Amino acid sequence: MITFFGNLHEGHAPASEFYRGELVPCFEKPARAHYVQAQLALRGHDVRTPAADSRAVLARIHTPRYLQFLETAWQQWGALDTANAAVQPFPSVWPVRGLRSDVEPVNFIAKLGLYSMDNGTPLVEGTWRVIKQAADAAAHAAQLIGQGERGVFCATRPPGHHAGADFMGGYCFLNNAAVAAQALRDGGCERVAILDVDFHHGNGTQEIFYDRADVLFVSLHGDPLTEYPFYLGHADERGHGAGEGFNLNLPMPAGTPADRWFAALEVACERIVRHRADALVVSLGLDTFEGDPISKFKLSTADYSRLGERLKRLGLPAVFILEGGYAAAQLGVNAVNVIDAFE
Ligand code: OKP
Ligand code: ZN
C-alpha cells in the first residue's frame, strides 16, 4: 500500500508529560514511528514522503487564530525568556464555563490554556513542522484516493483525533483525520465516513463534523465515564441540526474483550454502509491492544488482521491515519496487520 511517513517526526519529541500528578517520559514518542517504519519496510510497502500542502484544507478545519498560535507558539515562548528554550510550557488555567474565550489573552500560558483541553499535550520547538507534515500526508493521501488509489496509510505522529477546531489535547494538535475527510470532500466525494477505532473517543473529529450530514463520524471507544477524554463520547451524542443522525458513538467498558469489540464493529460497518459513502477515513489507533500501557481493551495482534479484513469487505477506498498505540514495540506489527489484511 502507498504509505506516507513523516521524515521530520523526530522533531516532535517532548521529554515528559503529566501522569498522576507527576512528570513521566512521554508515551507518545518517536520510537512508535520507528517501529511502524521498520514493519512497513519489512513487508515491502511503498513508503513515500508527503508532498501536498495542507494549508488550504487546514483553514477549513481549524480557526485562523488557533493555526496562527500553533505556528508561532514556540517563538512566542522563547521570546519571553532565553531560559525557556530548555523548558516545556504547560497550560495551568482554562476558560471553562462562565469565562471568556472570545478574547485572546496576551499572557502566553493563558493563551496555551485557551487553545488546550488538557495539560497532556506537550509542545516543543519542532512541533509545528512535524504536525504540518502529518496534515500534509493526510491531504496527499486524500488526493491519491481521488486519483483512484484504493488505500493509503499515513504512518504519521503525533495523533490528531482529539484536536478540535480551536484546541489541542491528548497529544493532538492538528486533526489529520478531519483534514483527510475534508480533502476527500473537496476532491469530489459526496459522502465520506470516518471510522475511529482508537481506544479513546475522537472528540475533536466529532466536534468538527457534528452539524454536517456529508461526513459521518462513527467511533468505538472506552466509555468516557471512566476513560479519557471524559467530557465527550457518550452514546446519546447523535449529531446536531443537519448533522443529526450522522454521529454514532459506541462506548464500551474498560476490559472489553475482542468478541464484544468486533460485535460493535459490525454495528459501525452497518451504519457506514447505510451512509453510502464514497470513501472511508480510518482513525487507526492501535491502543485497543491488550498490551497497551494506558488503555483497557483486549485486542490481540491477530485481531488487527481481522479488523483489516472486515474493513476490506466494506468495498470502499480508504485513508488510514495512525492515531494512538503506546505499546511501541508491537505497534508496527499491529498497524501493518490492518493494512496488509485490507489490501
Ligand atoms: C491519545 B490518543 C495524561 C495521560 C493521558 C490522555 C490520553 C491521550 C490518548 N497526560 N493522556 O487517543 O491515543
Ligand atoms: Zn488513543
TrEMBL record:
Q: Name one GO biological process term.
A: epigenetic regulation of gene expression
A Pfam family reported for this protein in Swiss-Prot or TrEMBL: Hist_deacetyl
Can you provide one Gene Ontology molecular function annotated for this UniProt record? histone deacetylase activity
Q: Which UniProt keywords apply?
A: Hydrolase, Metal-binding, Zinc
Q: Which cofactor does this sequence's record say it needs? A: Zn(2+)
| Domain Histone deacetylase intervals | 29-339
The UniProt similarity line reads: Belongs to the histone deacetylase family.
Q: What is this protein called?
A: Histone deacetylase family protein
Give the source species. Answer: Caenimonas koreensis DSM 17982
